[in-house]
Fold this protein.
Amino acid sequence: MFPGDKLTITGLVLEVVIPTGVTSLLWVSVYKGDTLLTLTIALIDTLLSPIIVPYSVAFLSGTTVEMDTVAT
């Protein structure tokens, strides 16, 4: 849809792969779901995101991303 526009493509890919724990907790609370399970999944997702996000962006957008995971 955006041929040659690497910034827009990278932004859309980041929008998809960034963890959204706060939003999921909100929806689970509204519909009276399992809050503990949601927090556990959000924690695991947040801990894995410094590893998953750069590889997902590189795979989906064809652009390399360098991230200092130790400093993060």
